[in-house]
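#lab-general

N.A. 3:47 PM
ok so I finally got the sequence cleaned up, no stray characters, all 477 residues accounted for. can someone with queue access submit it? mine expired

B.Y. 3:52 PM
send it over

N.A. 3:53 PM
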Amino acid sequence: MAGWLTSRRLFWPGGLSARLLLLTVLFVMLAEAMILGPSLASYEEGWLVDHVRAAELATVAVEASPAGVVSDRVANELLKGAGVVTVALQSRGVRRLLPPPPWAPMSRTPELIDLRRRNGAEWLASPFRTLGPFSPPFLRVQAKPQFREADFVEIVVPTAPLRHDLVTYLLQLLAVTAFISAVAGILVYFSLATFLVRPMRRITESMERFREHPEDPAARLVLSGRRDEIGRAETELSRMQDELRTALQSQARLAQLGQAVAKINHDLRNMLTSAQMASERIAGSGDPRVAQALPRLERALNRAVKLAEDVLAYGSSDEAAPQVRSVDLAVAADVAAEDARLTPEAVALVIALPKKFALSADPDQFHRILVNLFRNAREAMEGNGRNTGEVRLTAERKEGRAIVRITDNGPGVPERARDRLFEPFVGSGRPGGAGLGLAIARDLVRGHGGELSLAETGPSGAVFELVMPDMPSETDA
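B.Y. 4:20 PM
back already:
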Protein backbone atom coordinates (compact mmCIF):
# COMPACT_ATOMS: atom_id res chain seq x y z
CA MET A 1 0.00 0.00 0.00
CA ALA A 2 2.84 2.38 0.89
CA GLY A 3 4.59 1.61 -2.40
CA TRP A 4 1.40 2.34 -4.33
CA LEU A 5 1.04 5.69 -2.59
CA THR A 6 4.67 6.51 -3.32
CA SER A 7 4.29 5.71 -7.02
CA ARG A 8 1.06 7.72 -7.07
CA ARG A 9 2.90 10.76 -5.74
CA LEU A 10 5.58 10.31 -8.38
CA PHE A 11 3.15 10.31 -11.28
CA TRP A 12 0.60 12.80 -9.93
CA PRO A 13 1.78 16.38 -10.63
CA GLY A 14 2.12 18.61 -7.61
CA GLY A 15 1.33 21.96 -9.20
CA LEU A 16 -2.25 23.15 -9.56
CA SER A 17 -1.65 24.17 -13.19
CA ALA A 18 -0.31 20.76 -14.18
CA ARG A 19 -3.21 19.03 -12.46
CA LEU A 20 -5.73 21.22 -14.26
CA LEU A 21 -4.07 20.47 -17.60
CA LEU A 22 -4.05 16.73 -16.97
CA LEU A 23 -7.64 16.67 -15.72
CA THR A 24 -8.85 18.72 -18.69
CA VAL A 25 -7.23 16.31 -21.15
CA LEU A 26 -8.66 13.32 -19.31
CA PHE A 27 -12.17 14.77 -19.21
CA VAL A 28 -12.12 15.69 -22.90
CA MET A 29 -10.95 12.19 -23.80
CA LEU A 30 -13.66 10.75 -21.57
CA ALA A 31 -16.26 12.85 -23.35
CA GLU A 32 -14.94 11.69 -26.71
CA ALA A 33 -15.01 8.08 -25.51
CA MET A 34 -18.67 8.50 -24.59
CA ILE A 35 -19.51 9.54 -28.15
CA LEU A 36 -17.24 6.89 -29.72
CA GLY A 37 -19.99 4.26 -29.83
CA PRO A 38 -22.62 6.50 -31.46
CA SER A 39 -20.02 7.78 -33.94
CA LEU A 40 -19.03 4.26 -35.04
CA ALA A 41 -22.69 3.18 -35.23
CA SER A 42 -23.58 6.18 -37.39
CA TYR A 43 -20.61 5.53 -39.66
CA GLU A 44 -21.53 1.84 -40.11
CA GLU A 45 -25.15 2.67 -40.84
CA GLY A 46 -24.12 5.27 -43.40
CA TRP A 47 -21.76 2.76 -45.01
CA LEU A 48 -24.52 0.16 -45.33
CA VAL A 49 -27.06 2.68 -46.62
CA ASP A 50 -24.60 3.83 -49.30
CA HIS A 51 -24.16 0.27 -50.51
CA VAL A 52 -27.92 -0.32 -50.51
CA ARG A 53 -28.44 2.78 -52.68
CA ALA A 54 -25.67 1.75 -55.06
CA ALA A 55 -27.17 -1.75 -55.39
CA GLU A 56 -30.62 -0.25 -55.93
CA LEU A 57 -29.28 1.85 -58.81
CA ALA A 58 -27.76 -1.33 -60.27
CA THR A 59 -31.24 -2.90 -60.40
CA VAL A 60 -32.45 0.09 -62.37
CA ALA A 61 -29.71 -0.52 -64.94
CA VAL A 62 -30.70 -4.18 -65.23
CA GLU A 63 -34.36 -3.41 -65.88
CA ALA A 64 -33.38 -0.79 -68.43
CA SER A 65 -31.54 -3.42 -70.54
CA PRO A 66 -33.30 -5.22 -73.45
CA ALA A 67 -35.64 -7.89 -72.05
CA GLY A 68 -34.30 -7.10 -68.55
CA VAL A 69 -31.39 -9.52 -69.00
CA VAL A 70 -27.66 -8.74 -68.77
CA SER A 71 -24.61 -10.90 -69.39
CA ASP A 72 -22.57 -12.40 -66.60
CA ARG A 73 -19.77 -9.93 -67.27
CA VAL A 74 -22.11 -6.97 -66.95
CA ALA A 75 -23.72 -8.47 -63.84
CA ASN A 76 -20.31 -8.86 -62.24
CA GLU A 77 -19.42 -5.27 -63.09
CA LEU A 78 -22.67 -3.98 -61.63
CA LEU A 79 -22.28 -5.97 -58.38
CA LYS A 80 -18.61 -5.07 -58.08
CA GLY A 81 -19.37 -1.39 -58.64
CA ALA A 82 -22.02 -1.49 -55.90
CA GLY A 83 -19.66 -3.38 -53.57
CA VAL A 84 -22.19 -6.17 -52.91
CA VAL A 85 -22.37 -9.89 -53.52
CA THR A 86 -26.06 -10.05 -54.36
CA VAL A 87 -28.97 -7.64 -54.58
CA ALA A 88 -32.65 -8.59 -54.40
CA LEU A 89 -35.85 -6.61 -54.73
CA GLN A 90 -39.15 -7.69 -53.20
CA SER A 91 -42.35 -6.20 -54.50
CA ARG A 92 -45.87 -7.43 -53.65
CA GLY A 93 -44.48 -10.52 -51.99
CA VAL A 94 -42.39 -11.50 -55.06
CA ARG A 95 -38.65 -11.50 -54.58
CA ARG A 96 -36.20 -11.22 -57.51
CA LEU A 97 -32.44 -11.23 -57.74
CA LEU A 98 -31.32 -8.36 -60.00
CA PRO A 99 -29.06 -9.26 -61.68
CA PRO A 100 -28.77 -12.98 -61.07
CA PRO A 101 -25.41 -13.41 -59.34
CA PRO A 102 -22.73 -15.83 -60.43
CA TRP A 103 -22.17 -18.81 -58.26
CA ALA A 104 -20.57 -17.69 -54.95
CA PRO A 105 -20.31 -20.23 -52.16
CA MET A 106 -20.68 -18.92 -48.56
CA SER A 107 -19.25 -20.72 -45.55
CA ARG A 108 -21.78 -19.22 -43.13
CA THR A 109 -25.26 -17.86 -43.38
CA PRO A 110 -25.06 -14.05 -43.59
CA GLU A 111 -26.21 -12.16 -40.52
CA LEU A 112 -29.37 -10.14 -41.11
CA ILE A 113 -29.40 -6.37 -40.46
CA ASP A 114 -32.78 -4.76 -41.05
CA LEU A 115 -32.25 -1.02 -41.34
CA ARG A 116 -36.00 -0.44 -41.25
CA ARG A 117 -36.47 -1.59 -37.68
CA ARG A 118 -33.48 -1.45 -35.33
CA ASN A 119 -33.51 -0.54 -31.62
CA GLY A 120 -30.88 1.59 -29.92
CA ALA A 121 -29.02 -1.31 -28.34
CA GLU A 122 -28.62 -3.16 -31.65
CA TRP A 123 -27.58 0.06 -33.36
CA LEU A 124 -24.80 0.75 -30.77
CA ALA A 125 -23.59 -2.87 -30.56
CA SER A 126 -23.43 -3.51 -34.32
CA PRO A 127 -20.06 -1.84 -35.10
CA PHE A 128 -18.33 -3.52 -32.16
CA ARG A 129 -19.67 -6.87 -33.33
CA THR A 130 -18.30 -6.13 -36.77
CA LEU A 131 -14.89 -5.25 -35.33
CA GLY A 132 -14.86 -8.30 -33.05
CA PRO A 133 -13.07 -11.58 -33.78
CA PHE A 134 -16.33 -13.52 -34.25
CA SER A 135 -17.96 -11.30 -36.85
CA PRO A 136 -19.66 -13.14 -39.79
CA PRO A 137 -17.95 -12.98 -43.19
CA PHE A 138 -21.10 -11.64 -44.90
CA LEU A 139 -23.99 -9.35 -43.88
CA ARG A 140 -27.51 -9.46 -45.31
CA VAL A 141 -28.93 -5.96 -45.22
CA GLN A 142 -32.54 -4.97 -45.79
CA ALA A 143 -33.69 -1.39 -46.28
CA LYS A 144 -36.55 0.62 -47.67
CA PRO A 145 -35.97 1.45 -51.38
CA GLN A 146 -35.51 5.05 -52.43
CA PHE A 147 -35.59 4.84 -56.24
CA ARG A 148 -38.03 1.96 -56.74
CA GLU A 149 -41.55 1.07 -55.73
CA ALA A 150 -41.01 -2.10 -53.71
CA ASP A 151 -41.37 -3.60 -50.25
CA PHE A 152 -37.64 -3.59 -49.53
CA VAL A 153 -34.20 -3.88 -51.08
CA GLU A 154 -31.87 -6.60 -49.82
CA ILE A 155 -28.14 -6.87 -50.36
CA VAL A 156 -25.39 -9.22 -49.23
CA VAL A 157 -22.08 -7.52 -48.56
CA PRO A 158 -18.74 -8.93 -47.34
CA THR A 159 -17.78 -7.85 -43.81
CA ALA A 160 -14.05 -7.34 -44.51
CA PRO A 161 -14.39 -3.98 -46.36
CA LEU A 162 -16.74 -2.67 -43.67
CA ARG A 163 -14.32 -3.73 -40.94
CA HIS A 164 -11.42 -2.07 -42.77
CA ASP A 165 -13.31 1.20 -43.16
CA LEU A 166 -14.46 1.08 -39.53
CA VAL A 167 -10.86 0.60 -38.31
CA THR A 168 -9.69 3.48 -40.49
CA TYR A 169 -12.50 5.70 -39.20
CA LEU A 170 -11.75 4.68 -35.59
CA LEU A 171 -8.07 5.60 -35.94
CA GLN A 172 -9.00 8.95 -37.47
CA LEU A 173 -11.50 9.56 -34.67
CA LEU A 174 -8.91 8.77 -32.01
CA ALA A 175 -6.39 11.06 -33.66
CA VAL A 176 -8.92 13.89 -33.80
CA THR A 177 -9.88 13.20 -30.18
CA ALA A 178 -6.27 13.37 -29.07
CA PHE A 179 -5.76 16.62 -30.97
CA ILE A 180 -8.93 18.20 -29.56
CA SER A 181 -8.00 17.05 -26.06
CA ALA A 182 -4.56 18.59 -26.33
CA VAL A 183 -5.85 21.88 -27.75
CA ALA A 184 -8.68 22.08 -25.21
CA GLY A 185 -6.33 21.20 -22.39
CA ILE A 186 -3.84 23.88 -23.41
CA LEU A 187 -6.56 26.52 -23.80
CA VAL A 188 -8.12 25.64 -20.45
CA TYR A 189 -4.67 25.52 -18.88
CA PHE A 190 -3.71 29.01 -19.99
CA SER A 191 -7.18 30.37 -19.19
CA LEU A 192 -7.21 28.95 -15.68
CA ALA A 193 -3.57 29.89 -15.16
CA THR A 194 -4.40 33.49 -16.06
CA PHE A 195 -7.68 33.90 -14.21
CA LEU A 196 -7.31 31.45 -11.31
CA VAL A 197 -3.87 29.92 -10.72
CA ARG A 198 -1.85 33.12 -11.01
CA PRO A 199 -4.08 35.08 -8.57
CA MET A 200 -4.06 32.12 -6.19
CA ARG A 201 -0.27 32.06 -6.43
CA ARG A 202 -0.21 35.76 -5.52
CA ILE A 203 -2.41 35.09 -2.49
CA THR A 204 -0.28 32.13 -1.43
CA GLU A 205 2.97 34.07 -1.76
CA SER A 206 1.47 36.94 0.23
CA MET A 207 0.48 34.52 2.99
CA GLU A 208 3.99 33.05 3.04
CA ARG A 209 5.60 36.52 3.21
CA PHE A 210 3.21 37.54 5.97
CA ARG A 211 3.98 34.39 7.93
CA GLU A 212 7.71 35.09 7.76
CA HIS A 213 7.51 38.85 8.43
CA PRO A 214 4.07 39.81 9.80
CA GLU A 215 5.32 43.22 10.96
CA ASP A 216 6.56 44.21 7.48
CA PRO A 217 4.00 46.45 5.67
CA ALA A 218 5.41 45.24 2.34
CA ALA A 219 4.08 41.76 3.11
CA ARG A 220 0.53 43.04 2.80
CA LEU A 221 -1.41 41.73 -0.20
CA VAL A 222 -1.96 44.25 -2.98
CA LEU A 223 -5.60 44.09 -4.05
CA SER A 224 -6.30 43.49 -7.73
CA GLY A 225 -9.74 45.10 -7.67
CA ARG A 226 -11.52 42.01 -8.98
CA ARG A 227 -15.19 41.56 -8.04
CA ASP A 228 -15.36 37.77 -8.23
CA GLU A 229 -14.51 35.15 -5.61
CA ILE A 230 -10.78 35.78 -6.07
CA GLY A 231 -11.30 39.47 -5.34
CA ARG A 232 -13.35 38.65 -2.25
CA ALA A 233 -10.63 36.27 -1.05
CA GLU A 234 -8.01 39.01 -1.55
CA THR A 235 -10.12 41.51 0.38
CA GLU A 236 -10.74 39.17 3.29
CA LEU A 237 -7.06 38.15 3.41
CA SER A 238 -5.99 41.79 3.43
CA ARG A 239 -8.40 42.56 6.27
CA MET A 240 -7.22 39.53 8.21
CA GLN A 241 -3.60 40.59 7.78
CA ASP A 242 -4.39 44.11 9.00
CA GLU A 243 -6.29 42.80 12.03
CA LEU A 244 -3.58 40.27 12.87
CA ARG A 245 -0.86 42.89 12.49
CA THR A 246 -2.78 45.19 14.84
CA ALA A 247 -3.24 42.35 17.31
CA LEU A 248 0.48 41.53 17.19
CA GLN A 249 1.33 45.18 17.79
CA SER A 250 -1.07 45.28 20.72
CA GLN A 251 0.45 42.13 22.17
CA ALA A 252 3.93 43.58 21.74
CA ARG A 253 2.87 46.72 23.58
CA LEU A 254 1.26 44.61 26.29
CA ALA A 255 4.45 42.57 26.62
CA GLN A 256 6.52 45.73 26.92
CA LEU A 257 4.06 47.11 29.43
CA GLY A 258 4.23 43.87 31.43
CA GLN A 259 8.01 44.02 31.54
CA ALA A 260 7.92 47.63 32.69
CA VAL A 261 5.34 46.87 35.35
CA ALA A 262 7.35 43.91 36.62
CA LYS A 263 10.41 46.14 37.00
CA ILE A 264 8.71 48.93 38.90
CA ASN A 265 6.32 46.78 40.91
CA HIS A 266 8.84 45.93 43.61
CA ASP A 267 9.84 49.56 44.14
CA LEU A 268 6.20 50.65 44.06
CA ARG A 269 5.25 48.22 46.79
CA ASN A 270 8.08 49.55 48.98
CA MET A 271 6.89 53.11 48.39
CA LEU A 272 3.31 52.23 49.26
CA THR A 273 4.47 50.46 52.43
CA SER A 274 6.37 53.57 53.45
CA ALA A 275 3.30 55.70 52.74
CA GLN A 276 1.18 53.42 54.94
CA MET A 277 3.65 53.75 57.78
CA ALA A 278 3.65 57.52 57.37
CA SER A 279 -0.16 57.61 57.42
CA GLU A 280 -0.17 55.64 60.67
CA ARG A 281 2.15 58.21 62.26
CA ILE A 282 0.03 61.07 60.94
CA ALA A 283 -3.06 59.49 62.52
CA GLY A 284 -1.70 60.34 65.96
CA SER A 285 -1.28 64.06 65.26
CA GLY A 286 -4.72 64.99 66.64
CA ASP A 287 -5.44 67.50 63.85
CA PRO A 288 -9.20 67.28 63.03
CA ARG A 289 -8.56 68.07 59.34
CA VAL A 290 -6.05 65.22 59.16
CA ALA A 291 -8.52 62.90 60.89
CA GLN A 292 -11.17 63.83 58.31
CA ALA A 293 -8.93 63.14 55.28
CA LEU A 294 -7.12 60.14 56.74
CA PRO A 295 -9.78 57.44 55.96
CA ARG A 296 -9.78 58.38 52.29
CA LEU A 297 -5.98 58.21 52.22
CA GLU A 298 -5.98 54.82 53.93
CA ARG A 299 -8.53 53.40 51.49
CA ALA A 300 -6.50 54.65 48.52
CA LEU A 301 -3.27 53.19 49.93
CA ASN A 302 -4.90 49.84 50.68
CA ARG A 303 -6.29 49.58 47.15
CA ALA A 304 -2.93 50.54 45.68
CA VAL A 305 -1.09 47.93 47.74
CA LYS A 306 -3.58 45.21 46.77
CA LEU A 307 -3.40 46.21 43.10
CA ALA A 308 0.41 46.12 43.18
CA GLU A 309 0.33 42.63 44.68
CA ASP A 310 -2.11 41.39 42.03
CA VAL A 311 -0.02 42.82 39.18
CA LEU A 312 2.67 40.19 39.70
CA ALA A 313 0.25 37.39 38.83
CA TYR A 314 -1.70 39.30 36.19
CA GLY A 315 0.75 38.66 33.34
CA SER A 316 0.36 34.88 33.57
CA SER A 317 -3.31 34.60 34.61
CA ASP A 318 -6.66 36.30 34.34
CA GLU A 319 -8.09 38.80 36.78
CA ALA A 320 -8.64 37.36 40.25
CA ALA A 321 -12.10 35.94 40.86
CA PRO A 322 -14.39 38.57 42.40
CA GLN A 323 -15.09 38.33 46.13
CA VAL A 324 -18.78 39.22 45.95
CA ARG A 325 -20.37 41.35 48.65
CA SER A 326 -23.30 43.70 48.88
CA VAL A 327 -22.22 47.11 47.55
CA ASP A 328 -24.23 50.31 48.07
CA LEU A 329 -24.16 51.88 44.63
CA ALA A 330 -24.52 55.50 45.81
CA VAL A 331 -21.66 55.20 48.31
CA ALA A 332 -19.43 53.40 45.80
CA ALA A 333 -20.18 56.08 43.19
CA ASP A 334 -19.23 58.93 45.60
CA VAL A 335 -15.90 57.28 46.41
CA ALA A 336 -15.16 56.51 42.74
CA ALA A 337 -16.06 60.07 41.73
CA GLU A 338 -13.37 61.42 44.07
CA ASP A 339 -10.71 59.14 42.55
CA ALA A 340 -11.90 60.03 39.04
CA ARG A 341 -11.65 63.76 39.92
CA LEU A 342 -15.29 64.56 39.37
CA THR A 343 -16.09 67.83 41.16
CA PRO A 344 -19.19 70.04 41.26
CA GLU A 345 -17.13 72.97 39.93
CA ALA A 346 -16.02 71.12 36.78
CA VAL A 347 -17.47 67.77 35.71
CA ALA A 348 -20.08 66.89 38.30
CA LEU A 349 -21.59 63.53 39.22
CA VAL A 350 -25.38 63.45 39.45
CA ILE A 351 -26.76 60.37 41.24
CA ALA A 352 -30.38 59.51 40.43
CA LEU A 353 -30.87 56.13 42.09
CA PRO A 354 -33.71 54.37 43.85
CA LYS A 355 -33.42 54.53 47.63
CA LYS A 356 -30.76 52.19 49.07
CA PHE A 357 -29.93 50.62 45.72
CA ALA A 358 -27.38 47.84 46.31
CA LEU A 359 -25.90 45.19 44.07
CA SER A 360 -23.65 42.17 44.47
CA ALA A 361 -20.03 42.77 43.39
CA ASP A 362 -16.42 42.74 44.50
CA PRO A 363 -16.01 46.16 46.17
CA ASP A 364 -12.46 46.80 44.92
CA GLN A 365 -13.12 45.61 41.36
CA PHE A 366 -16.41 47.49 41.18
CA HIS A 367 -14.60 50.60 42.38
CA ARG A 368 -12.14 50.23 39.50
CA ILE A 369 -15.01 49.79 37.07
CA LEU A 370 -16.71 53.02 38.15
CA VAL A 371 -13.44 54.97 38.28
CA ASN A 372 -12.56 53.95 34.71
CA LEU A 373 -16.03 54.87 33.41
CA PHE A 374 -16.15 58.20 35.28
CA ARG A 375 -12.60 59.12 34.24
CA ASN A 376 -13.36 58.17 30.64
CA ALA A 377 -16.38 60.53 30.61
CA ARG A 378 -14.41 63.39 32.21
CA GLU A 379 -11.45 63.05 29.83
CA ALA A 380 -13.79 62.94 26.82
CA MET A 381 -15.28 66.31 27.83
CA GLU A 382 -11.93 67.87 28.71
CA GLY A 383 -10.47 66.61 25.42
CA ASN A 384 -13.26 68.44 23.61
CA GLY A 385 -12.24 71.74 25.24
CA ARG A 386 -14.95 71.79 27.90
CA ASN A 387 -14.23 72.57 31.55
CA THR A 388 -17.71 71.75 32.81
CA GLY A 389 -20.11 68.91 32.28
CA GLU A 390 -22.26 66.31 33.92
CA VAL A 391 -22.10 62.57 34.48
CA ARG A 392 -25.44 61.06 35.50
CA LEU A 393 -25.74 57.70 37.25
CA THR A 394 -29.05 55.79 37.07
CA ALA A 395 -29.96 52.19 37.83
CA GLU A 396 -32.87 49.75 37.82
CA ARG A 397 -33.59 46.08 38.39
CA LYS A 398 -34.97 43.99 35.56
CA GLU A 399 -35.41 40.22 35.31
CA GLY A 400 -32.98 39.44 38.11
CA ARG A 401 -30.29 41.81 36.87
CA ALA A 402 -29.03 45.18 38.01
CA ILE A 403 -28.78 47.60 35.08
CA VAL A 404 -26.57 50.63 35.75
CA ARG A 405 -26.39 53.46 33.18
CA ILE A 406 -23.69 56.12 33.12
CA THR A 407 -24.68 59.05 30.92
CA ASP A 408 -22.53 62.05 30.05
CA ASN A 409 -23.21 65.18 28.01
CA GLY A 410 -19.86 65.11 26.26
CA PRO A 411 -19.10 64.95 22.51
CA GLY A 412 -19.97 61.25 22.15
CA VAL A 413 -17.80 58.42 20.89
CA PRO A 414 -16.16 59.02 17.47
CA GLU A 415 -17.43 56.73 14.76
CA ARG A 416 -13.94 55.44 13.96
CA ALA A 417 -13.53 54.18 17.54
CA ARG A 418 -16.92 52.50 18.05
CA ASP A 419 -16.19 49.09 16.50
CA ARG A 420 -13.07 48.52 18.61
CA LEU A 421 -13.96 50.63 21.62
CA PHE A 422 -13.24 47.93 24.20
CA GLU A 423 -9.98 46.65 22.69
CA PRO A 424 -6.76 47.64 24.49
CA PHE A 425 -4.47 50.15 22.74
CA VAL A 426 -6.78 50.48 19.69
CA GLY A 427 -10.15 51.47 21.16
CA SER A 428 -9.32 54.96 22.42
CA GLY A 429 -11.28 57.75 20.75
CA ARG A 430 -9.13 60.42 22.44
CA PRO A 431 -5.77 61.58 21.01
CA GLY A 432 -2.98 60.26 23.22
CA GLY A 433 -5.24 57.77 24.98
CA ALA A 434 -4.04 54.20 25.50
CA GLY A 435 -7.47 52.67 25.23
CA LEU A 436 -7.03 50.61 28.41
CA GLY A 437 -9.70 52.02 30.71
CA LEU A 438 -12.77 50.64 28.96
CA ALA A 439 -10.99 47.35 28.17
CA ILE A 440 -10.15 46.82 31.86
CA ALA A 441 -13.67 47.79 32.92
CA ARG A 442 -15.28 45.30 30.54
CA ASP A 443 -12.95 42.49 31.69
CA LEU A 444 -13.87 43.17 35.30
CA VAL A 445 -17.59 43.25 34.51
CA ARG A 446 -17.41 40.00 32.58
CA GLY A 447 -15.56 38.48 35.53
CA HIS A 448 -18.75 39.14 37.49
CA GLY A 449 -20.83 37.43 34.80
CA GLY A 450 -22.14 40.75 33.49
CA GLU A 451 -21.62 42.87 30.39
CA LEU A 452 -20.53 46.44 29.62
CA SER A 453 -21.61 48.04 26.36
CA LEU A 454 -22.05 51.38 24.64
CA ALA A 455 -25.83 51.78 24.64
CA GLU A 456 -26.11 55.16 22.91
CA THR A 457 -23.83 57.84 21.50
CA GLY A 458 -24.15 61.04 19.56
CA PRO A 459 -23.33 64.75 19.60
CA SER A 460 -25.26 65.14 22.87
CA GLY A 461 -23.21 62.54 24.76
CA ALA A 462 -22.77 58.82 25.36
CA VAL A 463 -24.54 56.22 27.49
CA PHE A 464 -22.66 53.20 28.84
CA GLU A 465 -24.78 50.37 30.16
CA LEU A 466 -23.48 48.08 32.89
CA VAL A 467 -25.50 44.88 33.41
CA MET A 468 -24.66 42.94 36.59
CA PRO A 469 -26.34 39.74 37.76
CA ASP A 470 -27.77 39.69 41.30
CA MET A 471 -25.34 37.11 42.62
CA PRO A 472 -25.52 35.88 46.23
CA SER A 473 -22.93 37.70 48.32
CA GLU A 474 -20.78 36.28 51.10
CA THR A 475 -22.68 38.36 53.66
CA ASP A 476 -25.96 36.88 52.45
CA ALA A 477 -24.75 33.29 52.69
